[in-house]
Amino acid sequence: EVQLVQSGAEVKKPGESLKISCKGSGYSFTTYWIGWVRQMPGKGLEWMGIIYPGDSDTRYSPSFQGQVTISADKSISTAYLQWSSLKASDTAIYYCARGVYCSGGTCYLDYWGQGTLVTVSS
Amino acid sequence: DIQMTQSPSSLSASVGDRVTITCRASQGIRNDLGWYQQKPGKAPKRLIFAASSLQSGVPSRFSGSGSGTEFTLTISSLQPEDFATYYCLQHYSYPQTFGQGTKLEIK
User: Fold this and answer.
1) Distance (Å, rounded) from C-alpha A80 to C-alpha A7?
2) How far apart are CA A111 and CA A97, in angstroms?
3) Are A45 and B44 in contact (CB under 8 A)?
4) Nearest-angstrom CA–CA distance, A90 and A105
5) Rg of the Cα trace of chain A?
6) Beta strand A57-60 with A69-73: parallel, antiparallel or unpaired?
7) Integer Cα distance of B58 and B23 in angstroms
8) Which residues of B touch A114 (CB under 8 A)?
């Protein structure tokens, strides 16, 4: 069974750093892209970026380029989303999802993680 | 960026109704479009891929159609569990973009 299990909720202060995780199981982690999606409180879904764990090829939405870093450790089948300096506006739920039917790294997202709530507040 | 304009933004309907949600792309995206259902407090759930292919396990009352710039998601006979928010996602080009969502509410 394909599963993406994300790390737990985080409460941080502005300016702090954070790295959240997404562990894949039940499939070959290195041969599927993993995307990240943001959902701010009461808002819609926003595509942030995507990584191919096999070679760490990474693409970002211009809206998120420079604001976050996407990475992966294929040895433990885990993808990451990290911030070096959080802002209150980073408060949101972050989802990872597996990419399939891809073309050059743009993918339909089939299996989704359960989401990680990140709260940034002083 | 390709803009995905989803309509309506909200919809009130009754159990048994047929409803249609539309996504329009600002440029042609072939059939590189998926539809998702999201219930409060839950992750999005996949429904349709390649614009019209039903994901395994999804009830056949859901269907998708379209190609190029105009796409529709149709629910043929609404069930109580279908009241949720629906999103489209294009995966034709970077950055991938979602529609703004359609909230389907009980009348």
Assistant:
1) 10
2) 5
3) yes
4) 25
5) 14
6) unpaired
7) 20
8) 43
> Cα–Cα distances in Å, from A59 out to A50, A55, B12, B45, B76?
5, 12, 38, 23, 37
A60-100 tens-digit pLDDT? 999 999 999 999 999 999 999 999 999 999 999 999 999 99
A68-77 burial by CB neighbour count: b if 16+ within 10 A, else e? bebebeeeeb
Q: How many helices (H) and strands (E) does chain A have?
A: 0, 11
Name residues whose C-beta falls within 8 Å of residue B3's C-beta, 6 or more positions apart in sequence: B25, B26, B97
DSSP reduced 3-state for A89: helix
Residue A105 has pLDDT above 90, yes or no: no
Residue A103, pLDDT score: 85
Which among A44, A114, A115 has the least Cβ separation from residue B87? Answer: A44
Residues of B in contact with A35 (CB under 8 A): 96
> Which of B27, B91, B97, B103 is the best mutation test for A, with the most CBs of A within 10 A?
B91
Q: What are phi and psi of B11, to 5 degrees?
A: -150, 130
What whole-number distance in Å separates Cα of residue A98 and Cα of residue A73? 15
**CA-based nearest residue to A92, from A62, A60, A67:** A67
Task: Determine the straight-line distance between the first and last CA of chain A, rounded to whole angstroms.
Answer: 40
